[in-house]
Amino acid sequence: MIYFDNAATTQPYPDVLETYQEAAAKIYGNPSSLHYLGHQAKRVLEASRRQIADLLNVKAEEIFFTSGGTESDNWALKGLAFEKEQYGKHIIISAVEHPAVKESAKWLGEHGFTISYAPVNSKGFVDLKALADLIRPDTIMVSVMAVNNEMGAVQPIQEISGLLADKPTVTFHVDAVQAVGKIPVGDYLTDRVDLASFSSHKFHGVRGLGILYKKLGKRLTPLLNGGGQESDLRSTTENLPAIAATAKALRLVADRQAAAVSGLIQMRDLLYEALSDYDDVLIFSGRDEQSVPNIVTFGIKGVRGEVLVHAFEKHDIFISTTSACSSKTGKPAGTLLAMGIPVKSAQTAVRISLDDDNNMSELEQFLTVFRQIYADTAKVR
């Protein structure tokens, strides 16, 4: 089996699973309980929080645990909107956000808020001038993802931070789900960023655990009420085994990042060069420093993306259409359409998302199968 769908989810590291199992078996007390087992669990919880904070260069009290990236995005947008609605009801998101942000914004738009969409250029990068022009006196939030999940474009978070430097009343949220382990923390978690969302299973952690970074002093309306966990902002018993495993995963990814990125660049370049030799191949993603090294998005003219996905699956090679969260809808990639790519071309798009566990031998096998599929689809081109 060859797995090239790491932007959808990664395989947990063995050490991460070991940490999860050990915590589940041995640290089973409720962190809110007053007895010894509760205190033991609380110590592990807070030690994990401190480790994650240190790796992200933030304070421990700025880290909150959620059920995943989708909840973190929902909480960031809705919690901020309800907290600040008395000051304004205008929110700006980029035109290429993940559905967790887009759908949250759409929902807010149906409940009295005004949503504006910052356009992107032909390469998928947010148009800074257009974004600046959208800001109004009643703007309360700007939300822009760090790395686009469909194209791998690294958005200009530092430049947007500069744009918002003299606008302290505008909260800046960054969906950083695809950024961990691919670009430096400082590139997406600047001093101007107020909120940031993360998802454990995107960096070799486990499913069902997310992180929301909330800058000290910033306020959010809780989405969950109850026993007062997470500083009374997210009430529910903490998923301690997953939290401990996530802290381990983040440390391992940070330790391996430099070597991993170097290897990913080599693999990505090989793919680009090989695919570029085919006349009817469309390559949509970039291969420079403004793109993460693990995502290659392409298509074959006249061949729908889902056809390619299933063709490779027959050879035990797993790729995806551009976004796992919307791949079953049959709709073309929203990012491609926002970039001005014609619908017919966008419908061909598939995404290869690599990991440092992949290797050149797998790429060579992929390219051998691709050559066969390319020949087999000639009659529809």
From TrEMBL:
Keyword set, alphabetical order: Aminotransferase, Iron, Iron-sulfur, Metal-binding, Pyridoxal phosphate, Transferase
Pfam families, per the entry: Aminotran_5
Domain of life: Bacteria
Record-linked InterPro entries: Aminotrans_V_dom, Aminotrans_V_PyrdxlP_BS, Cysteine_dSase, PyrdxlP-dep_Trfase, PyrdxlP-dep_Trfase_major, PyrdxlP-dep_Trfase_small
Domain Aminotransferase class V span(s) in chain numbering: 2-366
GO terms of molecular function: cysteine desulfurase activity; iron-sulfur cluster binding; metal ion binding; transaminase activity
Cofactor field: pyridoxal 5'-phosphate
Cytoplasm among keywords: no
Keyword Lyase: no
The family this protein is said to belong to: Belongs to the class-V pyridoxal-phosphate-dependent aminotransferase family. NifS/IscS subfamily.
The name this protein goes by in its record: Aminotransferase V
Source organism: Streptococcus pantholopis
Lineage: Bacteria, Bacillati, Bacillota, Bacilli, Lactobacillales
